[in-house]
Every structure is written in C-alpha cells, then in structure tokens.
Amino acid sequence: QVQLVESGGGLVQAGGSLRLSCAASGSISSIWSMGWYRQAPGKQRELVARITKGGSTDYADSVKGQFTISRDNAMNTVYLQMNSLKPEDTAVYYCNALTWRDHWGKGTLVTVSS
Question: What percent of the chain has pLDDT over 90?
Fold first, then answer.
C-alpha cells in the first residue's frame, strides 16, 4: 500500500509560480512511476506530468515548458514546479503513484486569479 500527501497549493495571481509536493509513504519500493493529474470544475481529470523510477518524464502538451516535474532519488517525494500560471491552470491537483494499481492523494487546490 502507498499513501500520498500533497501540499503547496493555494491562490496565486496569473504569471506567478507555485511548487507542489507529494510525499509518499508505505511500499515506496513498489512504485514504478509518480505523476500529477488535475481536475478543473466540470472537466475530467487529466494527466499533467509523470516521472518514472528511472527519471524519464512526460508532460501534457498544455504545460510543456511551463511545468517541471522532479523527484528525490528514493521516490519519497515528487515535486511539480509550476511557472507562468494562467487562470486555466486552476484545478485540484492530485498526486498519483503507479504500482500494480493506481494510488491517489486527496488533492490540493490551485487557484490562479486573473
């Protein structure tokens, strides 16, 4: 079992930056990859960025060059650096860990004001 706790969300003006953190605990050695998803009001949850145990990364086209995902070597913590934030980035951001199944955090709200 893997437990995930997100932090770092909040209210920021357009053009600002935020850094989200996701702390993993439990069966960390079984994690293949970790990622960030987001769900805006009235929309489906979507992948934002993902990083594998080997360090490979993948981003949604909408955030390439704007967001950066990183992790510590032990996969204990994953970060999402979000720059040049736009109102359309407003969403609840969820941390995900993939083992033989998906594990989810409870989410952290990011609100970008115009």
Answer: 94
